[in-house]
Amino acid sequence: MTSLDYPAWLRIEHWVNVLFVTLIIRSGIEILATHPKLYWHDDSKPGSEWARFTRKVMPRDRLYDTLDEEEDYHPVIALPGRAQLGMGRHWHFFSVIGWILLGLSYYVLLFVTGQWHRYWPASWSILPEAWDDIVTYLSFNLPPLLPGEPFDAIQKLTYAAVIFLLAPFQILTGAAQSPAIAARFPWYIQLWGGRQWARSLHFLGLVAFLVFIAIHLSMVFFWGWGPLTAAMIFGSVRNTTLATLLSLAIIALIIAIHAAATIWSLRRPRSVQRVLGSVVNAARRILLRPLDSRQSYPPSKISPSHRVNGKPPASIEYKVMAVHNFIDWRLRVGGLVENPVTLDLAALRALNGRQTQRVLHHCVQGWTSIGEWSGVPLARLAELVRPLPQARYVCFLTMQDNDRDEPASHGGGQFYEVMDLELVYKPQTLLAYEMNGRALPIQHGAPLRLRVETQVGFKMAKWIDQIEFINDYAGIGKGAGGWREDNVFYDKNVEI
Length: 496
Prior knowledge:
It contains 13 helices and twelve strands. The longest helix is centred in the middle third of the chain and has 40 residues, at 195-234. The protein folds into two domains: 8-288, no CATH class; 299-488, Alpha-Beta Complex (Sulfite Oxidase, Chain A, domain 2). By secondary structure, it is of the alpha+beta class.
């Protein structure tokens, strides 16, 4: 074999790419485990999935929520495994950021150095040659290389598809699952057929990557591991024995990084939340925080049913209020404000500025639905109480006790959520007391719930009875900015 002329930058990025892609795949499997079902429609109706990766059967005789549908995948295949969605999200988005930056440099260098010719077909004549190569492979023989090139025809087409089609496809379908992007650009989501179409296509892209990896490794094995790894380590076919040893050492290092990431996540999740979260949140604030929701789905798009996430309060006090249509319920709004207020449901309804919006709900687990929500814009309430200059966040306290929702190891306690003050003034940030033209149902947060359409669903606290404007949340709960952030290490800012 002759020199394959692999420049140093290409060789380095090849191995770094292996690390990022495998981290993305394992953490993506962790995210899928949280709702291991795929749909072709945005209402995510139970039983209508086209694919499922769980044996669980949900009961028909009692209320269940989507937390009950979670699967616990083993750390060998999922990062970190053990039903740790918060950790999975941190690793997935951190790895995606690294992968995109690596890919951008790869594209730039491909075109600056002219290496793109290596992967891009020069003419349509490659198609019949590629078919001949497939026939040759099926006969357990190796086809000839293209003249003056390191690949045969089918290999060149495959690399072109992966580099210029599949990788961008995964990025674009991943972006279509962001509530901030879906809220600001509803038309973009519809280009993919809807949010669940994008999620399903993203999964099929994952399958395509796995198939490519399996075939790629098989081809390297059959062509000759030593010579080909020498080309990808030294840039030419030399020192094949050393190249084989070095390639195995690099693979061992990548496996060791995966093992370290898994152990770190399972043993010190707060540290992972803090370190990786600082990177991911910085990217979110720059790219996604400026986006405002502009959704207005037609009434015909409203989902016939809306999945439940989180079980309603079980206290006697709440049940008594519910029986009496919440006439005794009060919303206390205070903290760092000039004018603290206490409002009953009638007073809340009487506030000027009632707003109705038909929007797509994004659960952090992956399911969606379209609903109509009516209530008072949170900005109107802020106008009433007048936050002080030092107020930076808003804390929503609820009547929900998480002893009913989470495993005992996660702890119970009052559910609360914190969000940045700037989100109060987003156009479709709403305190909703009606859903689909009727009083808010108990299972969806009655008498009052939050809607923040650029965030995923768990930030939209339900069963609210107190709102506090604050300048810091370090002293609330465990100081991470919400019950789920405290106990299951979710992200505080969730535009994606």
